[in-house]
Write a structure and sequence with these properties.
Number of strands: 9
CATH superfamily: Spore Coat Polysaccharide Biosynthesis Protein SpsA, Chain A
CATH architecture: Alpha-Beta Complex
Radius of gyration: 17 Å
Largest sheet: 7 strands, mixed
Shape: globular
Number of domains: 1
Number of helices: 9
Strand order of the largest sheet: 3-2-1-4-7-5-8
CATH topology: Spore Coat Polysaccharide Biosynthesis Protein SpsA, Chain A
Oligomer: single chain
CATH class: Alpha Beta
């Protein structure tokens, strides 16, 4: 393996032997200020669910102590696994976590949310067996979105573009989602974009492949400002949106 490939390969520490019922995947970039508290509180909450679980911290290219804190969490808690790569890339980190997950159910979390209420409601729906994916929607009519108005507007703009360009049916694609890993793994592997738009592509493809997808409203109050400025994301989002539209609409993949 080349040196560059070794640097980009995920480092997985703290893996347990038995496969758990639930895997919670959390991409992390420069989150030293909240990572320890968020994960320890999430861990304590999940213990009350009465099902086996793992928490996968998918750290990617952090410039602060996020990687070291993730490694310490994996040493302190047998249910925590730390993944690492050198490239700051949300989509790749999320995908890596999903592919490394071993649970029957997977929840994609955000470190500034860790919404146990969403976990509880989503798992109740998935336990019924008639749904493959549950989306926690910030833009649902019954949701409570307490983010700044610019962030709320950005969510509606990107979802509007997804509806027009890709036929998305729904109110939200980015953020909290829960699904049956076996039902979604092939869809994950077919995704072609990364960074911020990977999460959106996953939802759009799940709908296109006629998986059973439902939305539920969430209350969202972020614990800190975004780790990457909103407007710095725009060029990459637009580039990947064009790429995804070409692949899906023109090449029909």
């Amino acid at each position: 393996m080349a040196a560059a490939d070794r640097r980009d390969a995920a480092v997985d520490t703290g893996a347990a032997d038995a496969a758990p019922n639930l895997s919670v995947v959390i991409p992390c970039y420069n989150e030293e200020s909240i990572l320890w508290t968020a994960v320890t509180e999430l861990h304590a909450g999940l213990l009350e669910f009465g099902r086996s679980f793992e928490i996968l911290i998918s750290e990617n290219g952090s410039k602060d102590d996020t990687r070291a804190i993730a490694a310490k969490l994996s040493r302190n808690f047998k249910e925590v696994r730390a993944l690492h790569s050198d490239e700051p890339n949300y989509g790749k980190a999320l995908r890596r976590g999903i592919e490394a997950a071993r649970g029957e159910f997977v929840i994609c979390e955000e470190i500034d949310l860790c919404d146990l209420d969403f976990h509880r409601r989503a798992l109740q729906i998935l336990d019924r067996g008639d749904v493959d994916m549950v989306i926690g929607s910030k833009a649902h009519p019954d949701a409570s979105d307490e983010r700044p108005i610019v962030r709320r507007a950005a969510t509606r703009v990107i979802n509007g573009m997804l509806r027009v360009m890709l036929g998305f049916r729904g109110t939200d694609t980015h953020g909290l989602k829960a699904f049956r890993r076996a039902a979604l793994l092939e869809t994950v592997q077919r995704c072609v974009v990364d960074k911020d738009l990977f999460a959106s592509e996953l939802v759009v493809r799940a709908q296109r492949y006629r998986l059973r997808v439902v939305e539920i409203p969430i209350t969202i109050h972020e614990k800190r400002p975004p780790s990457i400025h909103l407007f710095k994301r725009v060029p990459n989002v637009l580039k990947n949106l064009v790429k995804l539209t070409y692949v899906v609409r023109i090449r029909n993949r």
